[in-house]
Known about the structure:
By secondary structure, this protein is mainly β.
Amino acid sequence: MKSFFTIxxxxxxxxxxxxxxxxxxxxxxxxxxxxSYSLVNIHSGIAYQSDPANFGPVTCGFxxxxxxxxxxAPASGxxxxxxxxxxxxxxxxxxxxxxxxxxxxxxxxxxxxxxxxMPEINATGLTPGATYYIRLWEWFGTLTGNFQVCVLETPAxxxxxxxxxxxxxxxxxxxxxxxxxxxxxxxxxxxxGCLTFEHQSSxxxxxAQTTxxxxxxxxxxNGTDDYDFAIWGxxxxxxxxxxxxxxxxxxxxxxxxxxxxxxxxxxxxxGDRWVDDMVITAGENYVMLIDNWSTTTSPFSLTxxxxxxxxxxxxxxxxxxxxxxxxxxxxxxxxxMTATEVNNDFFTLERSNNGTDFEIIAIMQGAGNSNSPITxxxxxxxxxxxxxxxxxxxxxxxxTSESFDVIDIDNxxxxxxxxxxxxxxxxxxxxxxxxxxxxxxxxxxxxxxxxGK
Length: 453
């Protein structure tokens, strides 16, 4: 005879549902985007799994007292069924599709994939809108007590498995993520730090909007997955080319992250899953990798703490301070300065006599990655009379490029006049590179006042 028992579902408050000892007609558990656990009571009043109305013998654990639930598959067809221990700390779970009461198909049976000795099932490719059946029992089959279960829609595996498609973090709001693979293996001996290689990786970038401290907690949804992470920067390219600023490869599952007073900035498999927080400066860009070593495709959530606020990372190839040109003793001197460079391979300098048709006159090696000002210069001695236009283009190691505003020199005037003296405001003679107010005196008597280089 079919019997029902009450359960409490902690989902937006306590809701009283029913619990069944047979599958057909079992009550439904809502499918959420996060876990709202239902309390499962296993006691001697529930029929054995040998009950003719049940779906046959079990394939893991021992036959004994069981309880049944149903759920409706979400639009994605992907669910994670999680459990937490109670009085019962060693549970078992099976998942079925069925046409009640005549036909059924076992999809999965699990014993210890969840926290401790509790089960967890990750199911993909279910039919959206179809009903599925969950069977729950204590592993030995005869012990009684309670534990908890929930069903959530598995977050879609992110598209940020490669650094080139990293997700920008635009605020300090908590977020969740998931990965189904590693994409391109971008860790190597130069950048891996404490890590080895990518398992199920998620790449992120972020920018410090304000100066301050930055801490975080990465929490696996199932409570047991072994998540590792690394953060590169400031101003790291994608993929990184140096060792991480923070790195954790600690063995064992559970929460991991950065917190003040941890005592280290990197840790191997024997670490405690926590490294020191960071002090970051407004405007700095960072790259972060979160890797699921357990390869379960089970998601994680990340919560930021600390005093710094974050913004979407826009990793500029270079930050150009100036690009200028002037004629000096019959030579066109072209100068530019960068404040920072990220992934910068080379510069291309071009010249035109009409502002439209340009020819390459120089290719100069970039610094690759730099967080300090760098100046570049080139002397053009083969320009045409009249106005000459100059264009500067920067090219990354991956081949992408960016061109800057065109500048010009009127050589119809400058070519006929030569600098004979440069004076500062005190009348002292200085050179053209003098930084400050200076007076440039030409051989035709013209005096030009200029500030800066």
